[in-house]
Amino acid sequence: KCFITTDSAERLETLVGQLKAIKEELAALSALDKLGAGSPASASGDEGEGGTKVVGIVPASDMLSVGMKIEYWWDEKEGWCTAKLLAKQELMGEVLTWTVQFDMDNEKHELKLNSENKARWRILRAGE
Q1: CA-atom Rg of the chain in angstroms
Q2: CB pairs under 8 A, 24+ apart, for 13-18?
Q3: pLDDT tens sequence across 82-128
Q4: CB of 124 within 8 A of CB of 54?
Q5: pTM of the prediction?
Q6: What are the start-end ranges of the E strands in 33-113?
Q7: Residue 39: how many CB atoms within 10 A of its CB?
């Protein structure tokens, strides 16, 4: 999008917006790294919000389906937040983003749930 326009002010504004999103993502990942044991890969048997059990292996996003519950690492302040998968956005058979609704405030967000950011999300298995 940055190169669609020749207006330098618009290009700068687009770039700054993209850099802010990257900065927030890196800050959240840094906080997650500091937790160490809180990463999904080592979370087998960990208890999530509401007494649900966290699945120990983070699957590929193609194993996700509408209606599933996940936990998503928001940031150092909020930590792991449970959410429900509402919809997926696909392009040519590839899932681009998921619409998720967080339990704590019912807000909906478009998130990438893929192998590139697998440290930030994990599937919940209810009732175990």
Answers
A1: 16
A2: none
A3: 999 999 988 887 888 899 999 999 999 999 888 788 888 888 876 53
A4: yes
A5: 0.58
A6: 53-54, 69-73, 80-91, 94-102, 108-111
A7: 16
